[in-house]
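Subject: sequence -> structure tokens, single chain

Hey, anyone have a minute? Need the predicted structure for the following. Not urgent.
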Amino acid sequence: PAIVVVNTTASDWSLRKIYPWQLEICIDCNELANNGMPTRNEIRTLEELEDQIASCIEADEAAVFLARITCNGTRRLKFRVRDGAATYPLIKGLVERAEQPREWGFNMHL
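Reply:
Had a minute. Here:
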């Protein structure tokens, strides 16, 4: 199974001009139920990490949340980003922190 949460207000195509970059974050889940979905405890851990990431990149309207996809032991977050050059070092600094609750990485492109 998969669970997809979509920000329908971000479906306005005019946002692509303001937020031309797409950022995808992939988080590996550690605690899984039988169906490959995260356990309740894992969901809490994922949400805390997601909040940290979002608060960093969404500050000053630098990014807009598009979707969250949970499937097969991973959680993917999708954002549209205003300025890739400014956001890249922020997100790179987060992913390279010594202590991480879960393994995760990112990809950003136009």
